[in-house]
Amino acid sequence: MRQGLAILSLATGILLCRLIPPAPILLLHSLLRHQHPPDPFHFSNQVGAILIFLGVLHLPRARHLLERRSPPFLGRISFSLYLVHFPVMATIGCSVFNLIAPRSGAVPGCLAALIAGLAVTLPVAVLFERHVDRLAVRLSRRSPPFLAPVPSELSS
Length: 156
Hints:
Blueprint: H1 2-18, H2 23-31, H3 40-57, H4 60-66, H5 70-104, H6 106-142, H7 151-155
Helix pairs in contact: 1-3, 5-6
């Protein structure tokens, strides 16, 4: 019974995050009589994320998949991936698309661009994390506290 609820929670969360239009969620929100309606996209993503979290929390197989080597690795390089993916995809991905699409069509061009972009983005992100991000984190930990902004300076 508990595992069934966890699977239902996980599936519902995934649907709320990407597949279900937000109208039923806004209706539920308006029934709760909140004064300001939320942004439908963000509200459905928040509810979906909570349900996914609850589903993963109660499903041993899902937890086991997330405890493998690749999720922590991707978490470690995620900031580097975020920083390098756009320049790589805008150069390598677009170049590959422009080479493939005229001959084979848009779909094969997109697939080739995606594969080439991933093949370049992942190693570049690993190198960036090793040689730039780690160094930046080490240097930021060594900086004296007087260089850190005062909270009142952050709000202005």
